[in-house]
Amino acid sequence: MKGSLSIFDLESKALVHHIPQAHAGAAITAVVTNDGNFLISTGEEKSLRLFPLQSKQVLREITKNKTPFEDMVVTPDDRYVITAWLSTGDIKIHEINTNKEVHVFEKAHAWRISSTAVSPDSRILVSGDATGEIKVWDLINFKQIYNKERFHASNLDMSE
Question: For domain 66-160, which CATH number applies: 3.40.50.10580, 3.30.2270.10, 2.40.10.480, 3.30.70.260?
Answer without folding.
Answer: 2.40.10.480
